[in-house]
Write a structure and sequence with these properties.
Blueprint: E1 16-19, H1 34-41, H2 48-53, E2 76-79, E3 94-98, E4 102-107, H3 124-132, E5 138-139, E6 148-154, H4 157-168, E7 173-181, E8 190-194, E9 196-199, E10 204-207, E11 215-225, E12 228-235, H5 242-249, E13 277-285, E14 292-296
Parallel strand pairs: 6-13
Antiparallel strand pairs: 1-2, 3-4, 4-6, 5-6, 7-12, 7-13, 8-11, 9-10, 11-12, 13-14
Length: 309
């Protein structure tokens, strides 16, 4: 882990960092200067020349990195990336529960939990850090970008371990609700068990027949609404796109799923049709004070569509 960043948050986003590698003191330096190493090492999407010229690369003591600074092994360098002009994700982030250790928020569809790919400023953690003035706020679990609902975040580093352990050990009861086709032939409750694996470089996942079970979901019919129904989903595991794949394989793919059963190739900035999947309840015994907490999303299905894209 790096030392604490010398740069403040910018629009709720922590500075990026890189570190030169260790080397044998008897070996010659592989680069002549820090500028040369930065050009070689930093992501090609970063304009290294511009950041060097404007003194936006800094060392741990906040001194700017100069082009000709001699190369030094095991040296941390921080900088803020230039971001694309991201369209604002519609919908509100609602604080549902807050105490001195955690905040539980309800996020809208299309908002990434953490910065990823083309969604950086428009991510839950960046927006919350900025809006709540909490620079160390960190999500303890994640929802898919297109899924709405509850996310629990720790407010400071000292609380992360205790709350992360709840999710790692499976002691948090998570309940989802999904709007999907009603099927007379589908007998519920039913439990789906199979093996789900992420498909590299696609952002999707697939069921692997015959492989050891690693994904399990209890599916219950909660309410019929004509040709549709609300299903209550209780996952016992947390694999990529688990709930979406399990309902698809029951013949009831979730309404407005852009990926299953068919990839609709929806533009990444198209916010018009939210996936009708809601992380609706979290229930856990607080690992610090022992209080049983049951937190419910204020959203209801169907989730509202948004005009434009």
């Amino acid at each position: 882990m790096p030392p604490r960043s010398p740069l403040p948050l910018r629009n709720g986003l922590s500075a990026a960092w890189v570190c030169t590698p260790h080397r044998d003191p008897a070996s010659p330096a592989p680069w002549r200067s820090m500028g040369e190493w930065l050009r070689y090492h930093v992501d090609a999407r970063v304009d290294v020349e511009s950041l060097l010229a404007s003194e936006r690369f800094v060392y741990a003591d906040a001194r700017p990195v100069a082009e000709a600074d001699p190369y030094r092994p095991h040296t941390f360098v921080w900088f803020h990336r230039d971001l694309r002009d991201e369209p604002v994700v519609p919908g509100e982030i609602t604080v549902v529960h807050r105490d001195e250790r955690v905040v539980v928020v309800d996020k809208p569809a299309f908002l990434s939990t953490v910065p990823r790919g083309r969604h950086v400023a428009q991510s839950l953690v960046v927006r919350l850090r900025d809006e709540l003035g909490l620079p160390e706020l960190t999500p303890m679990h994640r929802l898919d970008r297109v899924t709405s609902g509850l996310v629990l975040c720790a407010l400071g580093r000292e609380w992360r371990g205790a709350y992360q352990s709840m999710f790692a050990h499976g002691t948090v009861r998570k309940t989802y609700r999904a709007l999907a086709p009603w099927r007379a032939a589908l007998e519920t409750p039913t439990t789906v068990r199979n093996h789900i694996a992420a498909v590299p470089r696609t952002g999707g996942a697939e069921v692997v027949p015959g492989a050891p079970v690693n994904a399990e979901t209890l599916v219950e019919l909660e309410e019929r609404r004509g040709d549709l129904a609300v299903y209550r989903l209780s996952p016992r595991t947390g694999r990529t796109h688990q709930l979406r794949l399990h309902l698809r394989d029951l013949g009831a793919p979730i309404v407005d799923d852009p990926l299953y059963p068919v990839d609709l190739e929806v533009d990444i900035d198209d916010f018009t049709r939210p996936l009708q999947l809601l992380a609706s309840e979290l229930e856990y015994v607080d690992p610090v004070d022992g209080v049983v907490r049951r937190i419910m999303s204020p959203r209801i299905l169907p989730l509202a569509a948004h005009a434009g894209g």
